Amino acid sequence: MKVQHYINKDVWPRCREVTLRDGILHCSLANERTYVLTEAYRYDLHIRFANAKTDHDLTQFVRDWGPLDLSEKEKLDNTASIPLSDFRIFQRWLNAVLHLLAAFKGEAGDERTALREFVEAEYENERNFPAPLDEPLSWSILRQQFAVTGSIGDWVSGASMGEVRTATDSLLHLVVVLPASGELVFRRRRNRGEVEARWAIDNLKEALCWMVWYDEFTQHPIICCQECRKVFRGETAHARKYCSHECGHRATARKWQRRKREALRSSKRNQRRERK
Prior knowledge:
The chain has 10 helices and 8 strands.
């Protein structure tokens, strides 16, 4: 028996043409230009998607890598029309996951702020499903765990840091950053059996989430800039806090101004004491 360790041969179509009209992305699929979803990890698709700021950036991403998801009818018709807001809602959710992970590891941002952004993104993402629940599963977990009766966002704002950390721990265990599932595929070729271990990934949306998981699995996590919150890949082993020299300079200048103001206030307090 031969065991093969490569993963996934699920392919996804790029787009031949993408136009944005009245807030709708109209996509013409290029099925002759498919690519393997997991092999696209080397192009950092999740980073590109998370950082697509403008409508042009997002349109270009869809043109290069295809829609996030497709119905069976859209696959047959080779066309899809998707509200731009659908992409933005998922983008905010994915960014919220990345920022919560970074805050949990103490790499960037305040954990309370990151948790609030995440629970808000969870609600928005849930409401965008065809048959949404009254509230996301994560909200129900927090209500049960902390006996929350009012707004989850308000609870996060007023919770103690111990509660915030406990809530973060609970949600990071359950957040669906790995919707794909592992499977074994068995084949017989002549007198030999072959086993292929692979991930079953159905669409680009699942692949982007899988890439977040794979970053951690391979100990190659992305970094959230502590200044502008852009996500990026560290190019060297040296730890970086900022995505660019400009962000680093702004952060340094702000810290210098803060120290200058604190020194001025301290000087004034000392002068008042001396006069007394």
